[in-house]
Input
Amino acid sequence: MTDWAGRMAGDAPPRALPLLAALLAALLVLPAIVDSYVLSIAILVLYFAYVGQAWNIMMGFAGQLSLGHSLYVGLGAYASAVLFVHHGVAPWIGAFAAIGAAIAAAAIIGALAFRFGIAGVYFALLTIAFAEFTRIGFDHFPWIGGSGGLFLPVARHGESEFWMLRGPPVMFYYVILSMAAMAFAMCRLLMVGRIGYYWRALREDEDAARALGIDIFRYKMLAILISSAMTAPAGVFFAFYYNTLFPEQIFSMLRSIELILGPIIGGLGTLFGPILGAFVLTVLAEVLNEVLAALGWEIPGARQVFYGLCLLVVVMYLPEGIWPALARRLGLERRR
Amino acid sequence: MTALLDVSGVSRSFRGLRAVNEVSFAVAPGEIVAVIGPNGAGKTTLFNLIAGALTPDDGAIRFDGRDIAGLRADRRCRLGVARTFQLVRPFAGLTVEDNAIVGALARTPDVAAARREALAALDRLGLADRRGLLASQLTLPDRKRLEMARALATGPRLLLLDEAMAGLRPTEIDGMVSVLARLNRETGLTIVLIEHVMRAVMALAQRIVVLHHGEKIAEGTPADISRDPVVIRSYFGEAAA
Amino acid sequence: MPLDLVLNVAIGGVLTGLVYGLMALGLSVIFGVVRIVNFAHGEMMTVAMYAAVMAFAHWQLDPFAVLLPVAAGLFLFGYGLQTSLINPFITRPEHSQFMLLVAIAIVTVNGLLMAFGPNARTVLVPYALDSIELGPLLVDKVRLYAAGTALAIAAGLFAFFRYARLGAAIRAAADNHTGALVVGLNVKRLYAATFGLGSACVGAAGCLMAVLIDVTPTLGPVYTLLAFVIVIVGGLGSMMGALVGGVLIGLSEALAGLVLVPSAKSMVTFALLILVLLLRPQGLFGRRA
Output
């Protein structure tokens, strides 16, 4: 354990650790000081921070652009929800099935794509194709609700059961907070370990990486398997938090894009990028909602237009994302 | 003594064109051998065949007695074959130190140990003070040094250098030559280099292999080679003969 | 299943596929030259579809009649987009370009949603339900006209790239960026013209699609994806490939509709894509990298 702790701290900038501790402390007491509306937004931020972190392993670390991560969210959600609805299996057990399903799909996609040397735009399209294929398939699969949706029985009023993940938003808040914290720690461990160096090397130049003894296929496979395994629990959370699943929603390409915006806006390949990006995007969307409501401009689409424009500005003027620029301001650059 | 590297009858064609044709030569442990020849003679192809970026159509490549011709480049690296690229390919988005660490991780899975090896390799090439820079921020000579440091960090027994001196100034060439000579002397590292800079070839190589149109046309000591009429005619042109 | 039904459906599929092909042609031309993947392609087509819808609703203008002005409008749009927003992104990494175009796509889809609302609009030309009888076969008039127009525009584009000076210059810039700069071609302008041409193609395709399907703002992403699938199947950057890919996808979609429920027919499209990516990743007409 101490060895882990040492590796985690490793070469972190000296000011990063106290800041991280302060952030975690603030997040731990947050439910005590905010109302239910802010709490629901905080849950959303942490959810996107979590999936963003998982996706970042693929793209930020290993340089493989996946535009089909909604596939792993959806498989995770359906696997755990079906077990719960049809067999009464608790989500904590169902999560293993969720991870298994995501890993199986990732293994197929990865084995096909990486063996055949499919990369870049082609790889991105292959991931979309698999997600869309699955979406349409689930639409026509009545046992899991088909396109009509799958509904999880909601807890009776006041009833709270942690084991079955039926309870008030505060419970979900702490669940997703622990998930996000664990994802952060895991990504940090991966990043400072051999696997992190190898991923970044093959992201930069595959031939040079191979000449330095890196088994490209193996490390790409590890990236997609770990990333998908991390993404699946987000689906479990989604299913039990929202209680309704529609293939059209959960597997849609828009969902995939939504979950990758955070890390890209925040800073690809960084640990804080997915968190910051999730925060900025979610809060921005909410603020826009409020402002437009106050102005009486509640036309469908108005919010998304502003959202798109903000995105445009960030992409144009902060190509590295927000975090690298902010880190320089805060004196949190890497020591070396 | 048995050869560390034994290339026998190796051929490789591209679209019917024989880039390397039945080339054989051997390199003893601790030896420095230069491969020379005019542009298009097949030198880099030969290197790619030895390092594993390409597989030969024909022939055998033995490293330390083991046939490696069918192995991928990463497996060969793990056996102790390291190479640099003619056009340098550092990992641009990584720091100098991280570049070298990636190399050192080939011999140890432990990052802290790899960092020590990496720093030692950077130190040898005079890059230790630049270890915090991004590789993309380095000048071309420094990038060449980095590429060599990265290859050295893998702990190779055989180092393949593809035009490591090209584009360097004479004083920088002399510096590189002395680094390589010291490495060879102190660690017994075996080196095969492709080189156009004759100043470096003559200072380093104990033996020279001459390629022309994909075939080996001569092999011998630097003194032999510089007197060989076949080499002079094909390599330095008719006018020189 | 009666043979003439299958034939009828197959012909309908091929005709629709030609229009798909024209749409995908735009994407392929842009990628082949500018090396930018236009992730807002379907959204641009939707803009053209609404232009056709409006012209028909307000002035009873036939979509075939407004095709040229709409295509010209999209040419200007594409030209402006390339010079203002996309040019600085040419040298940036793929994911960065992708984000830029996604942002443009989001603004476009939702701008249309704001302007026209979520309800479907239809262009019902007087001959919308007419068909031509060829023995046992019945061919929809609108589909036939749309396909014929698409084919004519595609032929014009082929001729442009083969015979026109500007076309040759664009091809030169695509083959060898540095070389084109050396011989004094204004590559930025050529790129803008190319993006404009690709946009004009998709604009024309939009007018044709407007007579074939109902128009909603959310069609954008669906057709972006479809255009991608087509160019990957045909070969990214190959003009012939885009056209053939369009026909192939149109045909397979139509035939799948015979055996599967309509909502499941695009599974066949994606299955086809996965197959092509695995067996021939450069596409049917692509050159191996």
